[in-house]
Amino acid sequence: MKRQALMLQDPLFVLAVAAQGGKNSPARYSMPGLAEKHGHKGLDIRPELYEVGLDALLETVKRHDPEHSHEIDEAWRTTLASGIEYMRSHR
Ligand code: HEM
User: Fold this and answer.
1) CA 79 → CA 42, 43, 66, distances in Å?
2) Domain limits at 63?
3) Ligand 1 site, residue 39, Cβ cutoff 6 A
4) Mean pLDDT throughout 38-59?
5) C-beta separation of 24 from 5 below 8 A
6) What spacing in Å lies between the alpha carbon of 35 and ligand 1's midpoint?
7) How many domains does the chain have?
């Protein structure tokens, strides 16, 4: 339980599992609360900052993965897209 709680504090874990895990996965049902926390009544993260964050993440992946490729970049973007879109549209 403690481990599960820790994993849910990790944005990447949440996004990847929300995209690929089942409908009832903890990551999926934590999305509304997370979106609210980042939304205009909470941290008030501007929608365009999600794009900035994604690009920074992928730049880091590119620098550190010796096997980096265009396909890997696309795979990250595809996997994370639905969660990011959710966060941007539920603020
Ligand atoms: C889809 C993208 C994102 C996801 C899934 C996400 C997810 C999370 C998660 C899981 C936490 C920890 C929450 C907790 O422990 O209760 C967190 C905290 C936080 N996030 Fe994000 N995040 C995203 C994007 C962003 C962006 C773009 C920013 C700012 C530019 C941001 C700013 C913050 C801040 C400041 C906290 C700390 C809040 C606190 O400690 O009270 N997040 N986020």
Assistant:
1) 26, 24, 21
2) 2-89
3) no
4) 95
5) no
6) 9
7) 1
Output the average pLDDT for the chain.
92
Which residue, chain included where needed, has tokens 């994993």? 7
Q: What residue type is assigned to position 56 of the chain?
A: A
According to the model, what pLDDT value does residue 6 have?
79
CATH of the domain at 16: 1.10.490.10
Q: Which position has the token pair 């504090």?
A: 9
Ligand 1 and 19: CB distance under 6 A: no
Tens-digit pLDDT profile for residues 12-21: 889 988 888 8
Amino acid making up residue 84: I
Please tell me if the CB atom of residue 6 comes closer than 6 angstroms to any atom of ligand 1: no
